[in-house]
């Protein structure tokens, strides 16, 4: 879709944009070229009215994503590190600001920046082969992709400290217990289950999905009173759509 991709594949099917990382090897590294292509692919999905929901996953290898390319980073100076970190953070900000739900389909190893990529998805579905970690401390670095800020907001300060300080790789069930992932499926049925969830979401009203995502994401940054006012505005706006009124009428007619 759209262009000749070098680090990913993009296919639109039944309202779902399937965006698959494919760096050509066992592991998907988030090097500069990959991040740039991810940003371009997400922009295409955002602009395509046929895409209601996006699924982001790894290719045929063993990983969802394993973070930055260490070979690319080994000669970094401070300015190189700053520029690379800003590029990665701009991708994750783009994901969170997208009007469309993004499902992270974590099909395997999810490490470092790959963990940050998963954190920027709206929903995380995991194969039981998942291994997820933030191993930066082993390498003498920390994440530059906002993981130190997002992880404690998701799983709490104490557990986030454990993840960063031990560099331990967690399996799927432990990741779900911690709140890192939302559902776990057997690897053999993983893709059919992911598609089932994606198709269900793609069947919803796009504007309702967009408003819901924006309001829920904003809830951490606004007080309850202002959040209620924001919700009132979104709720009333949705009733200006004839399609929304028809969906509501059809729903109650079936009940």
From TrEMBL:
Pfam families tied to this protein: ECH_1
InterPro entries membership: ClpP/crotonase-like_dom_sf, Enoyl-CoA_hyd/isom_CS, Enoyl-CoA_hydra/iso
Record has S-adenosyl-L-methionine as a keyword: no
GO biological process, one term: fatty acid beta-oxidation
GO MF annotations in UniProt: isomerase activity
Entry annotated with the keyword Isomerase: yes
CDD domains membership: crotonase-like (cd06558)
Keywords: Isomerase
Similarity remark: Belongs to the enoyl-CoA hydratase/isomerase family.
Protein name, entry field: Enoyl-CoA hydratase/isomerase family protein
Taxonomic source organism: Trichloromonas acetexigens
């Amino acid at each position: 879709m759209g262009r000749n991709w070098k680090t990913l594949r993009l296919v639109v099917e039944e309202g779902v944009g399937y965006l698959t990382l494919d760096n050509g090897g066992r592991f998907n590294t988030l090097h500069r070229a990959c991040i740039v292509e991810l940003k371009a692919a997400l922009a295409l999905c955002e602009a395509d009215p046929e895409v209601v929901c996006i699924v982001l996953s790894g290719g045929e290898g063993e990983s969802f994503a394993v973070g930055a390319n260490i070979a690319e980073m080994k000669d970094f100076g401070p300015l190189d590190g700053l520029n690379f970190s800003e590029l990665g953070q701009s991708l994750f900000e783009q994901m969170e600001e997208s009007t469309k739900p993004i499902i992270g389909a974590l099909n395997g190893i999810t490490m470092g920046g790959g963990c940050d990529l998963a954190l920027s998805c709206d929903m995380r579905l995991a194969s039981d082969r998942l291994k997820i970690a933030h191993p930066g401390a082993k390498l003498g670095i920390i994440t530059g992709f906002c993981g130190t800020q997002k992880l404690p907001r998701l799983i709490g300060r104490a557990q986030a400290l454990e993840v960063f300080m031990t560099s331990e790789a967690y399996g799927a069930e432990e990741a779900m217990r911690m709140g890192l992932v939302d559902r776990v499926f057997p690897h053999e049925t993983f893709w059919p289950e992911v598609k089932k969830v994606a198709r269900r979401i793609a069947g919803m009203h796009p504007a309702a999905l967009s408003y819901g995502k924006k309001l829920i994401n904003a809830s951490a940054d606004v007080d309850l009173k202002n959040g209620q006012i924001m919700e009132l505005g979104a709720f009333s706006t949705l009733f200006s759509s004839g399609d929304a009124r028809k969906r509501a009428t059809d729903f109650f007619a079936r009940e």
